[in-house]
Each structure stands twice: as structure tokens, then as C-alpha cells.
Amino acid sequence: MIRFSVSYNNKVIKTYEIEDQLISIGRLPENKICISNMGISRRHAKIERDTNSNIILSDLNSLNGTFVNNKKVSKTVLSPGDVITIGKYTIVFESDEGKEPAYGVPVPSLSTPGPSLAGTDSPLPGSTGYSRAVQPSFLGEHKDANAAVSAVLIETNKHVVYKMDKAHITIGASENDDIFVSGFMVGEGHIEITKKENELWISSNKFMGKFKVNGRKKKAHLLSHKDRIEIGTSIFRFMENV
Fold it and tell me: What is the pTM of this model?
């Protein structure tokens, strides 16, 4: 199942769960995703599967254009966590189908990653705990000294971006954890992400602390660009050099 969550002013106004091969987006009511706003063309864009089951977004010569992760596109392959902008609306693409998207797609720009939850006192919708965006910066040296180097975890089912900017990050079911997740047998400090010689490792020392990376159960894993991580009820996408 693939999902598209439509937001306006950082508030989700509707979520579509769609299995159709072709999804139209536009102002007219016959569109599968209808956004009734004059900044949206009548038939603004379409989303379809190709023969390799990749999810393809195409702009339909719209007046105001279609953007993915702040970059204007005419046609592109979508990855879970991608943010589509049409007019003043954003649409977050999510998928729980377990198929990794095609590689070679340009790395999304996260210069405007959405609202930070640092210091908030409000629980996330659908959760019983609190989540905080983690703080400051590492990930080792880069071959190009002038290039920005950073890494993030995108929690695709909650539309939250976490900076991987600490030498040690915990993920678990406690408010003391840097990233809150819930789920069966998930406890405090359930998972750790640590920096080891300019590499990021995700691991667990807990007896029941297994997690999945790209569909496979793991106890420890060296993180790589676009890894899909499942912890409890949360799904993350690891992105580096963004």
C-alpha cells in the first residue's frame, strides 16, 4: 500500500491510501487526489507505476510547477519520505510495500525539513510519548572540504526529520531517548546509533532488541544511504550527504 499525506501550513488535512496504477492530482473533482485551490492546475500532475514497480511522478505542464524536495521536476522516481510541493500544499509519499526504490535518484534536498519537535510538550499524533529532533553535527570528513556533509533519519510514517548530529543517539520508548518509538517489546534505549571512525552504526544490546534494515532482521548494521529501517511501529529512511 502506498500513501500520500496532503498538508497545508504544516498540518495534515487528508491522507490517501491508494492501490491504483495511475493517480491523478489536480483541482478538478475527478482527480484521485483533488486539491480545490486556484494555485493548482485542473490536471496538475500524475503518479504511476512503471514496469519495474517504481513510483513515477510527472508534471502535466502545470502553470505553477511541481516540486520534489524543493527541486522543480518534470518527471522523477519517488522514494518513501519524498515531499511533493504543489502550490502552497505539500504531499508526503509513504510506502509500506517493502520494495526499495530505484537507486541513482538524486539525493533529496532537506534544507527545509519541516517543523522541529525539539522542546515541544505535545505528543505526536497516534503515539503515547514524545519525540524530539536530535541536535548538532558530525559524520566525519568529506573528500571535498567545501561540500556540506550531514545525515538524517526521516521517520516516513510521522513526517519527522532527525539530524544525525550526535556521537551517540538512542531510540526507544522512553522520554529519555533521543527518538521516541513505540511497539511490542520496545523499551528504553532499545536501539543505539553510534559514530565509529567516521561511520554510523545502528545496533542493539537488548535481548529482544532486533530491528529490520531493508527487510532483514539485524542486531548491528553499518548504515548506508537510503537504508530503510523498521523499529517497532516506526519506519525510517537513512539519508546521508544531504
Answer: 0.43
